[in-house]
Amino acid sequence: MNLLEMRHIRKSFDGVEVLKDISLTVKEGEVLGIIGPSGSGKSTLLRCATKLETYDAGEVTYGGSVGLVFQNFNLFPHFSVLKNIMDAPIRVQKRNRAEVKQEAEELLEKMGLKDKANAYPCQLSGGQQQRVSIARALAMKPDILFFDEPTSALDPELTGEILKVIRQLAQEKMTMVIVTHEMDFAKHVSDHIIFMEEGYIALEGSPEEVFESSNARIQEFLGRFS
Ligand code: ADP
Ligand code: MG
């Protein structure tokens, strides 16, 4: 089953086309990695896929509900960790508070943050804040989870703990779309990779096909990381 289909998506800002006829599908249980230079349209693609942004042409369809994890965590600063996780399931999904609380506590335990339930975001490290925002996204029980550079705001030593959590979700067969600059991680966690350039899908395929491609553009891009 396809959980996400984008067909012929186009998007312009101020007359400049930043997504040029993007089509892709994500199947249930699949991890799609999206790589490419800064400004190539990766965030816009995710924002159109999750309908945070309108698009000018094309179609997006889902086979389920979506969750999104941002680069800058976007936690509510005046809410405790627990309340950050419980707020949307209770307020948006109208679910039972006691049940949501129990699930939130389980998610915190899974993220290794059981003792931080009553802390406020400012009392946490960046890595801890990002784990809370992953727990918050999971609390909505999404069928597909989108990550936009989940580690790029973190100090290098905190990146690993986030990548580990995402790897674990992949092992549990969570369907995910992950924009990342962590090339080794993208290669190992993804079932399929898209390389974006200037608003196009310049290359796509299995991790082996993309990373071992003789395509000059991808080799030039990958060369920046080695
Ligand atoms: P990436 O995530 O790959 O770095 P983005 O999707 O953020 O790329 O940006 C793609 C292009 O669209 C860039 O040229 C960027 O400046 C432009 N862009 C993105 N969002 C907006 C916006 N809200 N208004 C105007 N231009 C935008
Ligand atoms: Mg971006």
From TrEMBL:
Family under the similarity heading: Belongs to the ABC transporter superfamily.
Species annotation: Suipraeoptans intestinalis
InterPro entries, per the entry: AAA+_ATPase (IPR003593), ABC_ATPase_HisP-typ (IPR030679), ABC_transporter-like_ATP-bd (IPR003439), ABC_transporter-like_CS (IPR017871), MetN_ABC_transporter-like (IPR050086), P-loop_NTPase (IPR027417)
Alphabetic keyword roster: Amino-acid transport, ATP-binding, Cell membrane, Membrane, Nucleotide-binding, Transport
PROSITE patterns in the cross-refs: ABC_TRANSPORTER_1 (PS00211), ABC_TRANSPORTER_2 (PS50893)
Molecular function terms from GO: ABC-type amino acid transporter activity; ATP binding; ATP hydrolysis activity
Sequence ranges assigned to domain ABC transporter in this UniProt record: 4-223
Localization (cell): Cell membrane
Membrane topology: Peripheral membrane protein
Pfam families, A to Z: ABC_tran
CDD domains: ABC_HisP_GlnQ
Record protein name field: Amino acid ABC transporter ATP-binding protein
GO cellular component: plasma membrane
Principal localisation: membrane
